[in-house]
Structure formats: C-alpha cells, structure tokens
Amino acid sequence: MSKANITILDNISGEIRRRGMTQDNLCDLLGVDRRTYANWQTKGEMPATKLLKCASILNCSVDYLARDVNVN
C-alpha cells in the first residue's frame, strides 16, 4: 500500500490549523490574495520565495514543510 501524494501545501495547511491560524491569515502575512493561494493548492506548488516566507511565518524549516512529500 502506498502513501497518498502529499504536497508541501498539504503540510502548510496542517501547520496553519495546528497553530490556530486560517488561510486568510497566512495569505495576509504572505502578501497574496486567497485566489493566488488556492491556485497554488490546485497545482500543489508555490514560489520558492513564498515558501521561505511561509516557513518563517510558521517558525519552521522548509525541510519540515517538505516532509513526506513524494517528488517524482
């Protein structure tokens, strides 16, 4: 049995829930609108600069956000 395909955005979503934040809070802190974030979720990717900023906002490493992500 294989693991489901997990994306960095899935891990970010888990972290914002764990911290009691909302996606709107994160979007405000990243300086993007909700539609942009939703587009990243659909594609399963986000720009590296925003990923670095997201890790800083969530006070964790990019490696932590990339855990269990299958890159093929």
Describe what you observe in this structure.
The structure is a single chain. The protein has a single domain, classed as lambda repressor-like DNA-binding domains (434 Repressor (Amino-terminal Domain), Orthogonal Bundle), CATH 1.10.260. Helix content is 60%, strand content 0%. The protein has five helices and no strands. It starts with 7 loop residues before the first helix and ends in a 7-residue tail after the last helix.
Write the layout of secondary structure elements.
Blueprint: H1 8-18, H2 23-30, H3 34-43, H4 48-57, H5 62-65
- The amount of beta strand, in percent, is under 5%
Helix content: 55-70%
Please identify the top-level CATH class: Mainly Alpha
CATH topology: 434 Repressor (Amino-terminal Domain)
Number of domains: 1
The CATH level-2 architecture is identified as: Orthogonal Bundle
- Let me know the CATH homologous superfamily: lambda repressor-like DNA-binding domains
Question: What composes the largest sheet?
Answer: none
Assign the structural class, choosing from mainly alpha, mainly beta, alpha/beta, alpha+beta, or little secondary structure: mainly alpha
What's the number of extended β-strand segments?
0
- CA(first)-CA(last) distance: 18 Å
Number of helices: 5
Order of helices and strands: HHHHH
Shape: globular
Nearest-angstrom radius of gyration?
12 Å
Ranges where pLDDT stays below 50 over 5 or more residues in a row are: none
Mean pLDDT: 89
